[in-house]
Design goal:
The structure is a single chain. This protein has helices spanning 4-11, 16-25, 32-48, 70-84, 128-140, 144-152, 167-177, and strands at 13-14, 52-54, 59-61, 88-93, 105-111, 114-122, 160-164. A hairpin with a 2-residue loop joins strand 5 and strand 6 (114-122). By secondary structure, the chain is an alpha+beta fold. Helix 2 packs across helix 3 (32-48), helix 2 (16-25) runs parallel beside helix 4 (70-84) and helix 4 runs parallel beside helix 7 (167-177). The model has no long low-confidence stretch (mean pLDDT 94). The protein folds into two domains: 4-68, Arc Repressor Mutant, subunit A, CATH 1.10.10; 85-177, no CATH class. It contains seven helices and seven strands, in the order H-E-H-H-E-E-H-E-E-E-H-H-E-H. Helices cover 47% and strands 20% of the residues.
């Protein structure tokens, strides 16, 4: 289970509704309305304490400069879907790799000593060539598995690249595949 501070630490930028949806999916609150109201209260409290920044309709970590526009919103919603799953997850949002890649997110899902590692790329304005270049770089990078293993502190023998353009397809994939 994730607390509000942990949720914002992981997804970096969000709105209260999304945090409430995660809390509700975890069973912390019985209704989505209650979850959203309590998420809003906790996010406001964290902002008042100077631990996060309150912006116009959203909140972000102090080290995040996102304006929470279309790409960022879709990525946040996708990561929220991961956090709603009843399994353990580790998410790294927008970190830079040693070969200069900056994936939208790298995720590891684990259940019963089994894992699934994937690189999430949200596509809303990127060209097909740009995505292909990123995929080729990942596939040709000999140290990719070692990097991922160090990142997650466990052996990663395989990973997939998941480009998404709409959230519904990603939700369906998570429901079916996990």
């Amino acid at each position: 289970m994730f607390s509000v501070p942990k949720i914002i630490e992981v997804i970096k930028v969000t709105d209260a509704l999304t945090v409430g949806e995660i809390l509700h999916a975890q069973g912390i609150y019985s209704t989505s309305q209650s979850a959203r109201v309590n998420a809003q209260k906790k996010l406001n409290q964290l902002a008042d304490l100077g631990q996060i920044e309150r912006c116009n309709g959203f909140y972000r970590n102090l080290d995040c400069k996102s304006e929470f526009k279309e790409h960022s919103r879709l990525l946040t919603k996708a990561l929220a879907e991961v956090l709603k799953l009843p399994i353990d997850s580790i998410i790294h949002r927008e970190i830079t790799t040693p070969v200069g890649l900056r994936p939208d997110a790298i995720c590891l899902l684990t259940k019963n000593n089994q894992g699934y590692c994937f690189v999430l790329e949200v596509l809303n304005h990127e060209t097909e060539q740009y995505l292909e270049q990123k995929i080729n770089t990942w596939n040709n990078w000999e140290g990719s598995l070692e990097f991922l293993s160090q990142l997650f502190r466990c052996k990663i023998p395989h990973f997939e690249i998941l480009p998404i353009t709409v959230l519904d397809g990603f939700k369906a994939f998570l429901r079916e595949g996990i």
